Amino acid sequence: MSTPSPVDAPAVIEAHGLGKRFDIYLNDRSRLAEFLGRRAHHQEHWALRDISFSIQPGRSFGVVGGNGAGKSTLLKLVLDQLEPTHGTVTVQDGVKIGYFSQFSELDGSVSVMEVLSEVFAEVREVEAELAKIDTAMADEGTSADELDRLVERQAELFEDMARLDGWDVDREIDTALTKLGFNEAHRICPIDALSGLSLIHI
User: What backbone torsions phi and psi does residue 29 show, to the nearest 5 degrees?
Assistant: First the structure.
């Protein structure tokens, strides 16, 4: 059986008829008046109307538009941070979505590399355990039974790394940061010391 192309593969994220309306109140008094059952005192602003799309694995998409076009609203709907006014968003079971806000919510005292290490915390834990196993296996005082146990555990961890795509993490991080224009100094300095342009990249 042939492997389906990315276009034919089942979608990992789908939206149907998605829309989001915000009610804009001039002040708290108008909000209270409406709450008390008087006539509407708000303006309706539709950030999005009737948006439908599907994203297949292995494909890349860009969301392009001017300020106020609804780009952030769309992402927040996909992330389930906002409830749609109408329509649905479906994310396939097991799919993890990584998202960094354009407004930095990061600890300003840590570096970009430290932040990314936290993102791949599970991979780093496996790497740390593998390093300990290497040290123990190189120790001449390790018994034969203990060596057998270490070899079995090492094989399990190799499978975990393959499942997590952990072997390529450092290369992928380096490639992404290079494309975003982060040099070595940017990667290790505190986030608060980065320029505004770099913060937008984060």
Answer: -65, -40
Please give the helix or strand (H or E) that residue 88 lies within, else none: strand 86-91
CB atoms within 10 A of CB 78: 21
Q: What is the pLDDT of residues 21-47, one digit of tens each?
A: 887 655 555 555 555 565 556 577 788
First-to-last alpha carbon distance for the chain, in angstroms, is: 42
Chain-centroid distance of CA 103 in Å reads: 14
Local structure of residue 66 (DSSP, 8 states): -
Instruction: Give the pTM.
Output: 0.46
Contact criterion met (CB below 8 Å) for 15 and 88: yes
| Cα distances (Å, whole numbers) of residue 1 to 4, 6, 12, 56 | 9, 15, 21, 19
The pLDDT of residue 31 is 57
Q: What is the CA radius of gyration of the chain?
A: 24
Q: How far is CA 6 from CA 10, 25, 81, in A?
A: 8, 45, 28
Structure tokens at 119: 């993102």
Q: Name the strand (E) or helix (H) holding 11.
A: none
CA dihedral 164, 166, 167, 170 (to 10 degrees): 150
DSSP state of 50: E
Residues 192, 106 contacting (CB under 8 angstroms):
no
Nearest-angstrom CA–CA distance, 137 and 154: 10
